[in-house]
Amino acid sequence: MAAYLPRPEEERSRGRERRQGRNGERAAASPVRQHSGNRRHVDRHGRPTTWQYSCGLCQQDHALSSCARFRGLTPFHRYETVERRGYCRNCLARSHLAPDCPSITGCRHCNYRHHSLLHGASQLDNSLEPAIRDDGSLKLDIVLVPTATVRVSEDGVDRWSSIRALVNQGSTMSRIAYSTYRRLGLRSFTYRGNRFAHFRLMPRNVNSTWALRVNALITDNLPTRPYSDPIIDDPTQDFTNNTLADMDPRSNTPIDLELGADVYPALQREGKVATGLGDVYAYPTTLGYILTGPIRNLPRE
Predict the structure, then answer these.
(1) For the sheet containing 143-144, what is the strand order?
(2) pLDDT tens, 123-158?
(3) Burial of 6 (0-12, 13-18, 19+ CB in 10 A)
(4) What is the pTM of this model?
């Protein structure tokens, strides 16, 4: 009896089925890293993991705080790594930035709001230190700091809110308190790993049509109170309320906004007026007169 010989078309079909079977076996033998909606995947050893992101420094499956390579860096380079790769400097997470960090714990070494592994970085000395500090060795109520009550609103929105600002041309960038940014519901954007709020700034005088667009760094390190003790002397006796940037510059109302050198040229005007109190002068600005200067001189000894 003649043997059955398959046709060329049948032989080619069987070859394709065998190749597909072998490819399926190889695919099942080697797990492939796949991401789903909740970012669950398997690592290179086939073990399931729940890390949302791999380490941004060495690409291994662990948190940045557990990375041996990260821990081996100097505090300076750790801070640079965190900023450059978009980590939160408070908890070293990648799902948010420092202004939105829900963590209430601070550095174990100094209790400031940054991760303990970043302690000692030179960048923290300028970016996280309060603008006004009173460590008890110097009474700051001998100096009147320049404050103003301003109105803040978003572009295209008629609704505005009054907040208290500190005019500090020694600060390179305007800053707004995180609590104020959240309370006012301002818009924000991210630039070089930092969150900025964008808003329109106006004088407290509702009859003024002057306005300035400001980009302010969102921070949680503005001074809560400008003075340690109440100031008794009143330097505003010769001024009307409409001409003052702050109706009560002696007030201990918390500071919501710090206006830095980035906006100061738009605020300043020529001249100054003596108030008759120590060396306190009133300086005209687009926000009104801003009072600042020593109320009484420091002791000679």
Answers:
(1) 143-144, 288-294, 281-285, 273-274
(2) 775 444 433 344 444 444 478 899 999 999 987 777
(3) exposed
(4) 0.54
